Amino acid sequence: MKSFLAPLIACLAMATTVLAAWPINDICPVDAKAARPIYRVKTADGFVAFCCMDCLTSYEKSPGKYPVKKKDEQK
Ligand SMILES: [Zn+2]
């Protein structure tokens, strides 16, 4: 029974990690283009996504300059 449950629990743990790592925004805070989850950085609010590496770098240099629009606030 244990040998059957272990991979299942591992799967659930991985799914939870992926959801937790999902960005809080879907618009790039730097230039307002569509953000791609592969370019993301962890902040106090969660992961913030950007459209490209350049935007991510700009944000990391001065996070206060680019307010992040969260998904729920865009409705
Ligand atoms: Zn951008």
Short description:
The chain is about 35% helix and about 15% strand. The longest helix has 19 residues, at about 1-20.
Q: Whole-number radius of gyration?
A: 16 Å
What's the overall geometry? elongated
Estimated share of beta-strand residues: 5-15%
- Main pleated-sheet profile: 2 strands, antiparallel
**SSE series:** HEEH
Mean pLDDT: 87
Small molecules in complex:
zinc ion
Strand order within the widest beta sheet: 1-2
First-last Cα distance: 46 Å
Number of helices: 2
Total beta strand runs: 2
Low-pLDDT residue intervals, each spanning 5 or more residues:
none
Helices and strands: which structural class?
alpha+beta
Q: Please give the share of residues in helix.
A: 25-40%
Please describe what this structure looks like:
With 75 residues, the chain is α+β, with helices and mostly antiparallel strands. It has a domain at 23-70. Helix content is 37%, strand content 15%. The chain contains 2 helices and 2 strands. The longest helix has 19 residues, at 2-20. The chain binds zinc ion.
Which structural traits does this protein have?
2 strands; binds zinc ion; about 80 residues; two-stranded antiparallel sheet; elongated
Strands, helices and their partners?
Layout: H1 2-20, E1 36-42, E2 47-50, H2 53-61
Antiparallel strand pairs: 1-2
Zinc ion (ZN) binds next to loops.
